[in-house]
Write a structure and sequence with these properties.
The protein is α/β, with parallel strands linked by helices. The chain contains 6 helices and 8 strands; from the N terminus they run E-H-E-H-H-E-H-E-H-H-E-E-E-E. The chain has a 6-stranded parallel beta sheet. A two-stranded antiparallel sheet has the order 5-6. Helix 4 links the parallel strand 3 and strand 4. The protein is globular and about 55 Å long. The chain starts with 11 loop residues before the first strand and ends in a 6-residue tail after the last strand. The structure holds flavin mononucleotide.
């Protein structure tokens, strides 16, 4: 086998902002460091640096919005045995991870089910800037009934979830494209007084109110956006807007 033929492996470290992800009970291992608390910055700095030193490409932050309630229609067992529970909000640890490292990427799971696309894009773009482009969005649509219960919504069927996802991503892409490249222009030095000029593309047409809600105008942030870095575990099945990368299980 020549060097050219060699395949390159990419490594993602799977975690959740909580006691454990799928490796339930691993916190009991004597070498597990969750004992010094998953809810401290030091824990995530240590985790991030360890992954970077271990040549991981990225840390993948999985998430669910509420404890599962599939077992006996209740979340009691999940809470009692700490199965992916408790889980804190995932985007809050991203700046901690990216400031502790130089090149580790961060895959961030956020659901399109309950958040308005405008605030979603604003948050993601801010994180994208702060990390110098190291984040990617794992787009999911909330498949667990407990998540819909937590937000006080009736769960839609699967096709309804994917229809909303489709429309939602169309809005997100328009928002990210709403500023011209190089839109923020510094036209003067400190001695002449600072003049900042901002150009936006012509205002987005007001999108018809759909399940994502209506959106008028452009996004309140500068480029770069997440264009080129969306990846979808759910979104990969969406037909019109394709993610830039897909993480799928075998049946996908
Ligand atoms: C590798 C991988 C990781 C995923 N991570 C999450 C996650 O963190 N949170 C989530 O809500 N869904 C996640 N999903 C998506 C759900 O698994 C998916 O919606 C669920 O399997 C239900 O399938 P359905 O949407 O086809 O009904 C992930 C999927 C894959 C393949």
């Amino acid at each position: 086998m020549t060097t050219k033929d060699k395949k390159k492996a990419h490594l993602l470290g799977f975690i959740q902002h909580g006691v454990n992800s799928h490796a339930t009970g691993m916190w009991r291992h004597p070498k597990d460091k969750v004992g010094w608390s998953f809810s401290t910055p030091e824990y995530w700095q240590h985790m991030a640096r360890t992954m970077e030193r271990g040549l991981f490409d990225a840390m993948f932050i999985a998430d669910e919005l509420a404890p599962y309630n599939t077992h006996e229609n209740s979340s009691d067992a999940i809470v009692r045995w700490a199965v992916q529970c408790p889980t804190h909000e995932p985007s809050t640890i991203v700046p901690i991870i990216t400031t502790a490292t130089k090149h580790l990427g961060v895959g961030l799971t956020l659901s399109t089910a309950f958040e308005h696309p405008y605030s979603m894009c604003r948050r993601l773009s801010s994180l994208d800037h702060l990390s110098a482009g190291r984040i990617a969005w794992n787009i999911v649509s909330s498949y667990s009934k407990s998540e819909w219960d937590a937000y006080g919504h009736t769960m839609t069927d699967r096709s309804g979830r994917y229809e909303r996802l489709e429309e939602y991503m169309g809005v997100c892409y328009q928002l990210w494209d709403s500023w011209e490249p190089g839109a923020l222009e510094d036209q003067g030095g400190p001695s002449r007084g600072q003049v900042l000029q901002v150009r936006r593309t012509p205002l987005l047409r007001a999108l018809a109110a759909g399940t994502s809600g209506s959106v008028a105008g452009g996004l309140f942030r500068t480029r770069p956006g997440l264009r080129g870095k969306t990846c979808g575990s759910d979104f990969c099945r969406s037909s019109e807007h394709r993610p830039d990368a897909a993480i799928c299980n075998r049946s996908d």
